[in-house]
Amino acid sequence: MAQKKAHEVDAWLAKPDRKTAIVLVYGPDRGLVSERATSFVKGAGLPPDDPFSVVKLAADDVDKDPGRLVDEMRTIPMFSDRRLVWLRTNAPSKGVIDAVRVLTEEPPTDAILLIEAGDLKKGAPLRSLLEGASAAMALPCYADESRSLDTIIDNTISAAGMTIALDARQALKRNLGGDRLASRSEIEKLVLYAQGAPQITVDHVEALAGDASGPSVDAVIDAILLGKIDEFDAAFLKITATNQLVPLLTSALRQFQSLDLLRDLVENGGKTAAAAVASARPPVFFARRDTMEKAVSRWSSQLIRRVLDRLQTVVLQSRERAGLSVPMVRQALLGLAFEGARRSSVS
User: Fold this and answer.
1) pTM to 2 decimals?
2) What local confidence, expressed as pLDDT, does residue 213 receive?
């Protein structure tokens, strides 16, 4: 079977099989999916910003032009021995699956297809197709376990030339969730906060946990969910003034991931929006329950998955073009806020 277990993925990425023509990276931890996909690109030795070597596609690109994915994979590389086509999709459409099936039947020898996908359950068409293909590899990404978090903490803190006390480590791990991107962002923020100290202490962790930045991030996200454009602009200005763009993006990803799970309980579990929010674990903070109930009732699963695709793309683009990150992120999130306004007007 062309697949790895979750604990085998990092080892495979460190030494990927050159015969593999299609790589699927999928799972509920979108931060980890993104991180491992980027790791694979770096390991392939292809510059991600070179349009001649790396072609980036979204699922919509394939849906609009069904033959494009196959055409890109069949294009002869001009300046390297292999090309890479990087496709991002949360819930693969029939058009994407059909195009990938063509490639599994006749795998290219001078191109690699890298697919970033969402949480594909066992038996999902794309996952089943690639797990059974000889020239493909499926790599699952699940929420960080304690050991994985320790590795991220150690690598990030040691890279800054610092150490962390045992009680501080335990306190930090209690504050981290299951999303790799969000966890790394929180650790990096802690390192920046404790800059100049040889060791991170529990006082640093507790001080950062009590930082007042959280409410302003929530204000932006709530404005998006409810479609309150004026409130979005005011809250986003506060974010840019306090340099919280990365926490905002990771929080937005985490919020829409949670919304996706809650909406699934409504569409497939027969629950009301209120019952779905009440069952959330960890519990939704009481002051935000009304917002979440409205969001769960208004945003469909299909729309939420498109939003997750868009957010993931913005995260990567804001890293690649740091100088344009503020207007880029604002434009993307403002578009989501307008979508929230449309949802509000039809509910």
Assistant:
1) 0.54
2) 45
